[in-house]
Amino acid sequence: DAGQIDAALIIRPPFGALPDMSWQALVHEPYVLIVPKAVPGKDWRTLIQAQPFLRYDRASFGGRMVEGFLRREGLSVNDSIEIDEIPGLIHLAAKGLGVALVPLVEAHLPLPSGVRVVSLGKATFQREIGLLLRKPRASPPLVVQFAQSLREAVEIRKDKRRA
C-alpha cells in the first residue's frame, strides 16, 4: 500500500489489488477436516457439528475463509479453541480435543499419527498462495526474475507429482 516493497509472497487477501499491483497464483491448498483418529465417522458435516470445533482464528485470512464456509453451508459448530496456527490446530486434534478445518499444507505433511483427514468433497474450498508484485513497468528486474523463478519452481513441483 505504501509502496515500500516490490513483492510479497502471501495468502491471497480477501480484497482486490491496487491498480499498480498484480497477483500471480502459485499454489492452491484445499481445506480438509482434521479429525482425531479415535473419532469414528466419515461424514464431515456430522463430524463438524457433533465434535468440539478447533477454530482457525477469524482475524486471519484463513480463518475468515473458514467462517465464510461455515455460513455458506449453514453449519453451527461447538467452538472449543480458537488459534491462528495450523500446526497448533493439527496438534490439538491429534490430542483428541476436537476437529479443525485447515488447508492441507505440504509443509505440515506427514500429519501426526493421531489424526486423519476427511475430505469436504464437492464443498471443498481452497486458499491460494501467490506473489503480489508491482506491475512489470514498476518492478525492478530482480523482482521480475524472482517471480519467474517461483513460477518455474511451482511447475517443476507439479511435474514431479505427476510422475
Q: Which stretches are poorly predicted, pLDDT < 50 over at least 5 residues?
A: none
Helix content: 25-40%
Ends apart, CA distance between termini: 41 Å
Element-level helix/strand string: EEHEHEHEEEH
Round the Cα radius of gyration to an integer and report it: 18 Å
Number of strands: 7
- Largest sheet at a glance? 7 strands, mixed
List the helices and strands and how they pair.
Blueprint: E1 7-11, E2 21-36, H1 44-50, E3 52-56, H2 61-72, E4 78-83, H3 86-94, E5 99-103, E6 115-118, E7 126-134, H4 141-162
What is shown here, in short?
The chain contains four helices and seven strands, in the order ββαβαβαβββα. The chain has 163 residues and is α/β, with parallel strands linked by helices.
Question: Can you put this structure into words, describing what you see?
Answer:
Helix content is 31%, strand content 31%. The mean pLDDT is 87. α2 (61-72) links the parallel β3 (52-56) and β4. By secondary structure, it is an alpha/beta fold.
Label this structure with key terms.
single chain, 163 residues, alpha/beta, seven-stranded mixed β-sheet, 31% helix, elongated
